[in-house]
């Protein structure tokens, strides 16, 4: 920042969107996303201004696209552009003196008032001389404008249509002013749009022996579960840590302090004598088993996401090999995690200030290994308890070599930290969605996610996690599960679900917001098949939701979400749309109406923002849940019975 | 802007206030102004963060001031600092690891829980070793913390108070992170705080002869009027253009097209054969007369502001000497002003694109002349019809040599242009205040001016101008004049009034928003004395308002305005405060309650934001209009009779 003001330019371009922190960080986008570019540009006096988006694609293709003045009072210009390449786009805004438009406007007004008629012909001829330098096609118009046999009005009528087209194709760009350049990092689709499922591989295929002890599931048995995941339509499968688990201060069932010999321990207490973050838990199998598991998943169209939890059990090899990566206390011992006076002695947190570059190299080495084994997605455990600059450096280094690698931040923390992690590189983040359950909360939050924070923060809407079983799910009954899955899958470009949700698991450990007998500390053998057979599984609904997403590309993006109105305090209405020009010529508009109160039947009117969706006075919609068709318009009656069907998912038929 | 993300730093400082467009333009401030600095700073985990304002004054004095965390959920830190020097301040935000605070907090918690007691003493001693490198005073505390004869709790109690003080005086600033530097341009007080009056010097002392013709007033006769201006308490006197007036297409009375020989013409049609912007109209006197006039004003504590209207009459010397400064049409004639099909043939607008640097030199030369004659304030006519970059270059050049020169933008235009003119250098601007008359409009606009736009846009609240006589004044009767002057003088750090307002001149030219028989086109002989004598002058009220401003420094600033609540749709409530530490030890709090409806008597409750003003449960206030005293609290009854007295101006007695 300088002592003198920055030069304002001939035509001040005083605001640009999208941008993040004045250009300090790149704007986030994904393949296929449609971005609305806007700029506030001003000029003195009454002459016409032209404003263009000048965008260069990752492969170097430059596009110039005229922007429209959408709000004259605010000097606001806008245009939409679809990003189709992965990589760094760079855009600038160009503003220039539109001499042709000024001349045409002035001439029309003056001819209508019979003022300066011949003079305006002369002015037109003078302007054509400028155009002539760029193209020989203009000379014919000079002849017409000079033709004394015609009245000035006749001359103008004769040239207007063609000349306007030719001028647009050969713009003079007099006094062009260019804004600063802004980078948009366009990543592969899964970076911001995916359907996530989470399971503990040790539970998949685990079984209890007659003596009560357990046989762990492993990657070989877990392969069998992949079909179940595919069947529900998910395309990312996230695994909690698969590494050896420490024995020292291991946690027992329900997070108790004294584990028995048969308790498997929390996968997040990483490391024992056999290895750390680069090793696989012996119970789960070999590296080859893991590789086979990844390949089997990929064959089914499922990518594997691994956990990256940068902490160690006291038994982790790092404790001996690299004690400088931990905090040594004044008595020479290594500091365990604590929130005084509470102690978490099974975990040694990393100290990032002692040897940042050494630790960075180690994590880089570990990630390179897993990337080599086919894992391109990492769910980062509690990134907000590690230093932000570590993540910035790590992600930048990895993405520089592997731009396809995706990091999901499990940052359940305050907004400034969550947003900053997004800005410095995390491709996506868990969000507050889990705790936004009422209509008003959802309207506010979905708007924030889709608009205010969309340039730097990409949410993944998880309905539950091993750490979170909300009161809404605990006490909302089966309809609550249906409502939440429907909102997450339809409103979120990315959404996620932790195993057991489809079985309506809703009993919490008393006083906590977690499942009782939490899978973090023990094996779970769930009978998904039986639940399906007795019709008490949500799996078919989940499959339907994911199918609807697949068939309606508009649902796969976040920035295109718009909320609409209902007269009922619990009925949420939102839509997503892809215009034909951004969807191979086909319009795709989906309107979702949902009763967020799982204990009620609601009847209300729904009011749509017609202009935003470019809707005609009346139109037909198809309910993608029931197949029913309705005639809709701006104001529509709905009746939503949470006990039967809490939602309409309506595709507009145009 | 770079392809890689900017380095986020050890402790991310993700938002700073004040700043303008991410540091692109300096922040505006005036001498004596109290600025609230805020920063959003984050750190991982639970250790304590210290945040400081590091500010360097124009003379090079650096101050470090600890900021307080005012909103933990938003990671927001704040502190207030008063700018007392004129020139460029530069500030940064510093965030560092507050090891001492972390140790003290952890030790207290652990001792209370009887955990790690001796360990925390050892940790303390280790920390003291770090402090010892900066000061020898810490060694005594090491001894106490090592003293085995005392319990750890006794040791802590013995050191805490003194050690905390010493640690604060010798901070370690471990892992310090510094934000980018931001410039604050602190200008002399009149740049943002003044009491303005406008008169046409040709009218001051003008008189009509028996034959109906006029004898023009001049600088000698106008000297007599200075006492009237001083008497009302104004400290800036703005003169419409004082240059020769063109004869070609001169405008007659009431803006008619055919002026008679005796019509003096509009002062804004500048230039005739005798001279242009560097000349004085012969009727007004000589350069010496002008110089004497300026000196006389200065002696009374009044600065003279001149008009800078960059346009020419067809008779201006520039038309012959520098035709390139105008637009030549295709027929070889010079373009007059027009808004097709309307023509303004008495005015030739400047073309800024033909010879920007030549024209810049000429205006620079002209300003240097007037600056030499003692004029340091310029009211710029219609800056939004000239190119923004011209103003940026001109103001920067002039202010570089004469930082005391002030430019007031007469930019009655759209927000983006008004704001940009402020950002690129205009010290202040006319505002929309004139058209904000209802309570709701005023609450919104005063908040915008005092907070949202205060860093770059300094308003001058004019109640009228020769161009603006609003419907509110046309139809509100005398109470309307009293209401508007009271709001402008109390709410505006700068306010202004055009001659005749004090006489309640309220008749408009039909169909226009201007006074009938507008002074722009003719002489006005007003009898201010007679009006005073028959008690039909607002001058005594204006004098009182300006006196109240002078005696209550809080009223002289803009950023300190806060609006409060009333239950009535017309009763506006706002306050301004200077805390004792920023006002020589004396608190100055003024609460203004005003009935904005000039046709009514209103009774209502007024509700104050007590915490914002640091007010006790009950307190005494003195009405500075009537001298009455009241007992006030959070909720107060008021009765305001617009026909008698529409306002309370209450000084809080602490």
**DSSP strand tally of chain A:** 33
The tally of helices of chain A reads 16
Major sheet of chain A, described briefly?
8 strands, parallel, barrel
Largest interface: A-B, 70 and 70 residues
Strand coverage percent of chain A: 25-35%
Computed CA radius of gyration of chain A, to the nearest angstrom? 30 Å
Fill in the keyword field for this structure.
homodimer, 654 residues, 8-stranded parallel β-barrel, 33 strands, 25% strand
Structural notes for this entry:
The structure is a homodimer of 654-residue chains. Chain A has 654 residues and is an alpha/beta fold. Helix content of chain A is 28%, strand content 25%. Chain A contains 16 helices and 33 strands. In chain A, the strands form 8 sheets. In chain A, strands 11-14-15-20-21-22-23-24 form an 8-stranded parallel barrel. In chain A, strands 2, 4, 5, 8, 9 and 10 form a 6-stranded mixed β-sheet that branches. In chain A, strand 21, helix 10 (415-423) and strand 22 (428-430) form a beta-alpha-beta unit. In chain A, helix 1 packs antiparallel against helix 4, helix 2 (117-132) runs parallel beside helix 4 and helix 5 packs parallel to helix 6. The longest helix of chain A has 18 residues, at 152-169. Chain A starts with 12 loop residues before the first strand and ends with a strand. The mean pLDDT of chain A is 97. At the A-B interface, helix 1, helix 2, helix 9 and helix 10 of A face helix 1, helix 2, helix 9 and helix 10 of B.
